[in-house]
Structure formats: C-alpha cells, structure tokens
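Narrative summary of target 7.
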Amino acid sequence: MQYKLPFEKLQVWHLAKDFAKQVYAVTKGFPNEERFGLVSQINRAAVSVMSNVAEGSSRASRKDQAHFSQLAYSSLMEVACQLQLAQELGLYDEEVYGNLRFQLLELSAKINALRRYQLDSAKTKN
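Modeled conformation, tokenized:
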C-alpha cells in the first residue's frame, strides 16, 4: 500500500483538485486576450483552494488548520465571482456555468464543514 500524505486522505481536497481541473478545462476555451486576465486569475484562485486545504492539513493546531480552511473558502468565493463574470461576458455557456456552480456549492459546503469541525475540535482542547 502506498503512503498517503495527510491532505490526500481528505475528500474535500480531492473535490477541490477535481474542481481546479474542471476550471482549467473551461478557461482553456477562453479567448487568447484573456490569458493574462481572467484566465490567470481564475486558475490561480482555483489552485489556491486545493493548496490551502493541503497546507492546512499539515498544521499542528486545529485553529491553524481552520485558518487555512477559511483561506480555501475565500479563494473559492473568488473563483465563484470570476466565473460568474466570465459567463456574463459570454466567455462560456450557461450550462457549463451551471455545472461549475453545482461543484462550487458542494465544495463550499464541504470546506465549511471541515472548518467547523476544526474550530469545534480546537475549543474542546482548551
């Protein structure tokens, strides 16, 4: 059996990674003039979601872990905002946006649940 890093054991990290891959696939079809604008911003924010979940998993205290879960959630909201703008600008169609939004809402709920667990665990240790 292959050893797994702490973040690789988290379902929320796998969802965040799948979401980032989906975002990359969608932004690949954006116009070339958006490569250094929305494409770069959206992709970086999507990667930030999974990266913050991973970084948080390496922190010793639950309070620190919760901080990184909050950062992941904040990055996810950044992606949500940018994807909505891109759709309204006509850079991709509404059906694709609906699918991304569904994934985003699911991921949002999971990150919030993880953060609540981390904060509750931090309180019980005191």
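The longest helix spans residues 94-125.
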